[in-house]
Amino acid sequence: MRREIENSLVGTYGRLTLLSATIMLLGWLWHLWQRDARNGIITVGIGLLLLTPLLTLAHLAYLTMRTDPLVARYSLIVLVLVGLAVLVGLWTGGAR
Fold it and tell me: Which of 9, 44, 75, 94 is the most exposed place for a label (fewest CB within 10 A)?
């Protein structure tokens, strides 16, 4: 069971990283083609790349929900704490 969870997490992380790299590449190609100074597609790719570990952690919580509820609970606690940290950072950063 542990090996299956590890393989699933590796697959999730790899697919999300590949997806974000593909989005960034498409954004870069769009940037070259349109010659625009700002490109939101690249920003989406970078955002997905930054969210990849958190999405993988959410996947871990889902996979271990029935077999190891303690791991699932701690994974969800970490997700909530990171979410709160991001919200506080956005709130205080936006107040400047």
Answer: 94
Ramachandran bin of 68, using left for φ above 0, alpha for ψ from -120 to 50, beta for the remaining angles: beta
One-letter amino acid of 88: V
- Looking at the chain, the whole-number percentage of residues with pLDDT higher than 70 is 97
The size of the chain, in residues, is 96
Residue type, 61: A
Location of structure tokens 């889902």: 62
- C-alpha–C-alpha distance, residues 20 and 52, integer Å: 9
Q: What is the pLDDT of residues 3-62, one digit of tens each?
A: 999 999 999 999 999 999 999 999 999 888 888 777 788 889 999 999 999 999 999 999
The count of other CB atoms within 10 Å of the CB of residue 5 is 16
Is the Cα torsion angle 86, 91, 92, 94 positive or negative in sign? positive
How much is the pLDDT for 63? 93
Residue among 16, 56, 81 nearest 64 (CA): 56
Outline where DSSP puts E strands in the chain. none
